[in-house]
Amino acid sequence: MNASRKNSRFHLGWIVLILILVLLYATNPSEGQFTTFLKEEIVQQAEGDETLAGALKRVAAGPAAVIAGSGAERNNYFFFSTYRFTVLEKDYLYLGVLDNFLRIKKE
User: Fold this and answer.
1) How many other C-beta atoms can be found within 10 angstroms of the C-beta atom of residue 99?
2) Could you give the 3-state DSSP secondary structure of residue 21?
3) Which long-range contacts (C-beta less than 8 Å, at least 24 apart) are formed by 61-70?
């Protein structure tokens, strides 16, 4: 009986691991999602800024995101991706996982 319990926990562990890997693989964000994320970030930074500069940021958000997104170097690790790009001599590194993006580095 004890060996049977151990064996079922072993199988359950593998099933959970496989389900987690399938979830990570299915939610690995694409380059298009990264460009959309960048646009939203630029617009969000300009929110509340009612000056001419804020208005220009909101208008330029789309093209700026496309330029940054197309210049980004994507490393696809199947379960997650990293995106690296440089703007105005500052390096940015983002981790894309579970359909979300996390900034890892800004130098």
Assistant:
1) 12
2) helix
3) 64/38, 64/39, 65/35, 65/36, 65/38, 65/39, 65/41, 66/35, 66/39, 68/35, 68/38, 69/31, 69/34, 69/35, 69/38, 70/35
pTM: 0.72
Nearest to 44 by CA among 99, 89, 101: 101
Q: Looking at residue 85, what DSSP letter applies? A: E
77: closest CA among 24, 23, 9?
A: 24
- In order, the DSSP letters of 35-67 are HHHHHHHHHHHHTT--SHHHHHHHHHHHHHHHH
What tens digit of pLDDT does each residue of 3-32 get?
A: 556 666 678 888 999 999 999 999 999 998
The contacts of residue 58 (CB under 8 Å, 6+ apart) are: 43, 46
